[in-house]
Every structure is written in structure tokens, then in C-alpha cells.
Amino acid sequence: AFSAAIEKGLVKPEDKIDCQMGQIVVAGRVIHDHHPFGVLTVADALALSSDVGAIKLGLLAGNESMYGYMKRLGFGSRTGVDLAGESPGILRPVNRWQPSSIGSIAMGQEVGVTPLQMATAYSVLANGGTLVKPHLLRELRAPDGSVLFQAKPETRPALKPETTEALRGMFEGVTLHGTAKKAQLDGYTAAGKTGTAQKVDPKTHAYSATKFIGSFVGFAPVKNPAVVIIVVIDEPLGSYHGGDVAAPVFREIAEQVLPELGVTPDVEFKSGPTLIAQTSKASLAQFKVDSLQTEHREASLPKIAASNFNGQASEIVLAVASNRAALMPDLHGQSVRDVARTCAQLGLRLEARGDGHAVRQTPEPGAEVDVGQIVRVDFGRGN
């Protein structure tokens, strides 16, 4: 509903919408919201998951437009992923809608969507309006490194770029001050939407009052998305709201995946400075580069004594990672994954060559580096 209304130019995020204190009548059917909201901006109606707000935008867009935009986002059709048995979900044509269906569909009822369909739809926002056919396998290589198969992205336009730009800001609001505060990431911006769906009782064929599905789908970072992640919790224990049960899982996944992909943080880490440990004598020597230049920095680098695997005491220098200049850690011997995580924590841009473990790096250990600086690391498989 929000996408259709904004794409058609019917509303802007800052426009006001009366959510009628949580109650609306659609074709004689009274629909209640989960909270009695009054007048909200369109952006806040999304952030706070106002059903009445969504219904009013659906009514504004109209049945045909709602159906058309859902089809453009991939709902009601198989994504075409290279996996047998995919379900198309449920999206009835408009001629099979009831008079009150627009109210139900606007708030997520009377439709069935697979997690992959939902993730694909949100990738439209992340990709600036382009829908990309999903693949399980990106590339297949022979032992000699030659490429045997490479998936070629199939794309089509789904939304206007200016629409997705507006929607990205609105969906970021969901994590900043809406129902998905628990999806906020440490070091990265995030955007997305919570979902709390009633399950259909197989005996009564009506919506259950006790069984729910909590979900969250989002992407990060907001301005230059690298990943889309969807989390679906079937019949959660205790709280069943997506913001409580699924959003924290999204956070845990994203905070591990983004550094491993080498994605540069776009906000400061909330948990305080990251400490990168250096334990070897060579590493320690590299940190003490020039006492005149680093005296003020060494005062802020805590040193502790610890036992190594041989039971001998060794000095460890912990280098502080912040948005200011930091000292380049020694990456030699680390895996590509560990190097990517370290660079991401320091806000550095990694250029990796080869595979295996780090054998050469630029800048050298102990050099001062700034956030956004490029780090080149060669990897190899030694004997």
C-alpha cells in the first residue's frame, strides 16, 4: 500500500494521515488497529505499523493499482530460483476480491507470500527499483580455476528510483523509532519492516487467535545496501511480535555477515572502541614506530600481560578502532574472513588478492590509517 501510493505520487513521506484512533470501516466491516493512533505522517504510519494507515493508503491507490504493484514486486508468482518445488504464494486476481478485501490485503491478510518472495521484493528497494531473479549458485569453478558456470542476473524494473529512495528512508525509520528498534546494528545503518501474522487454523479455516508468525525483513547499509535478510519465526514462544522475536535475529546475522563481506561501517560502533590484539614480538615492535609521533597514541593503547600457549608471559597491545586515525594491525597469517572482519571493524576498505592466508599487506603493521582508507592484502597457501 505504501509503495503503490508513493509510486503513483498520491502521498509523500511527510504528508499527514488520520489513523482514526485505531478503527476504520471498509465495506461495512469494522477493522481495529493494534494501537489507537491519531494523526501521523505517512512515514510514521509505516514505522509504527498502523493498519488503519496502510488501509487508507490502499483505498487511495485502489484495487487495480494495489494488485498491479504487488505483481510488479513479484508476489503471486514464482521467483524462478534454481530450486524445484517453489510455491507461487497466494494473490487472487482483483475479480475474485471481496468488497472488503482491499482492507485485508493492505494489512497483509488474504495473501500468502514465501520468505524468498519477500526478500526479493525488498531487494527492489535495495537495488534502486530493479527486481533481480534470485539464484542459489553464483559460480561453479573447475579445480584449475576455470569458470564452468556463472549465473547471469535477470533483471526488470519494478519501481522508480525516486520511489525506492523515499521508501528506504521510511523503512530506516522503522528501525530508528518504530517497531524494529531491536534491528539496529552496531556500526551500520539498517532498514526494514516487522511482520506479525496470524496463522490459519486448519480446522476452522479462520485466523487463529493464539498462533502467530513473527518476521522481520531488512537490508543494510541503508544508502548502499549489501545484503537483504529475512527472518521468520513460526509460532514463537512468549512474545510473537516480529519486532521482539525476529528483529534481534536479523541484527545478530547482519553484524556477522557485513564485516565478513568487507562492508565498511557507515555509523560509529555503539559498543565502544573495537580492540585489535597483537601478540607477537614483531607486532609489538611495529606498533612502537616512532615514539615522538606515537607518544600521545601509546598512552591510549592499553597493554596487558597474558600467557601464551607455552605458558610464557607475553605483552599484548590493544589498538583502538574508532572513526579517527588508528594503527594498522598485523594481518599476516590471517584468513580472508578474519582480515575482512578486522578491516570492517576499523572502517577500512579491503582489496584482497588470492586466497588462503595473508602473506603481504599495505600499509605495514603500525602505520597510521584513517577510516575509508584502502588496505591491500595478498593471500597465499604456503607449505
Map the helices and strands.
Elements (H helix, E strand, L loop, with lengths): L1 H6 L8 E3 L4 E4 L2 E4 L6 E3 H6 L3 H11 L1 H10 L28 H6 L8 H12 L3 E3 L6 E3 L5 E4 L4 E3 L3 H17 L13 E10 L6 E14 L6 E8 L7 H4 L1 H14 L13 E5 L2 H7 L3 H8 L4 E5 L5 E9 L4 E2 L8 H11 L2 E5 L3 E6 L5 E2 L4 E7 L3
Structural notes for this entry:
- There is one protein chain.
- This protein is α+β, with helices and mostly antiparallel strands.
- The protein has a domain at 274-380: 2-Layer Sandwich (Trypsin Inhibitor V, Chain A), CATH 3.30.10.20.
- 29% of the residues lie in helices and 26% in strands.
- The chain has twelve helices and 19 strands.
- It has helices at residues 2-7, 42-47, 51-61, 63-72, 101-106, 115-126, 161-177, 242-245, 247-260, 281-287, 291-298, 336-346, and strands at residues 16-18, 23-26, 29-32, 39-41, 130-132, 139-141, 147-150, 155-157, 191-200, 207-220, 227-234, 274-278, 303-307, 313-321, 326-327, 349-353, 357-362, 368-369, 374-380.
- The strands form eight sheets. Strands 9-10-11 form a three-stranded antiparallel beta sheet, with helices on both faces. A three-stranded antiparallel beta sheet has the order 12-14-13. A three-stranded mixed beta sheet has the order 16-19-17, with helices on one face.
- Residues 272-324 have low confidence and may be disordered.
